[in-house]
Amino acid sequence: MEVVANVVIVGAGIAGLATAVALKRVGIEALVLERSEGLRTTGAALTLFPNAWLALDALGIAQKLSSIYNPFNK
What we know:
Blueprint: E1 7-10, H1 14-25, E2 30-33, H2 50-58, H3 62-66
Parallel strand pairs: 1-2
GO molecular function: FAD binding; monooxygenase activity
Keywords: Monooxygenase, Oxidoreductase
InterPro entries: FAD-bd, FAD/NAD-bd_sf, MOase
């Protein structure tokens, strides 16, 4: 049985993009909408808790990020 789904994701932040990647891997196409016209290189910081890293690892992209960004340790 083939399941066809149309999904719209509002926001191209880490959660929206990770959701789009996960859906694509199971065969569901998603449209990602973002109000910003382009990428910003300043003005934002992102904190990821351990569960977020587990989710990114499950998507196969945690290593790519952790090799570029150093973890913040108190």
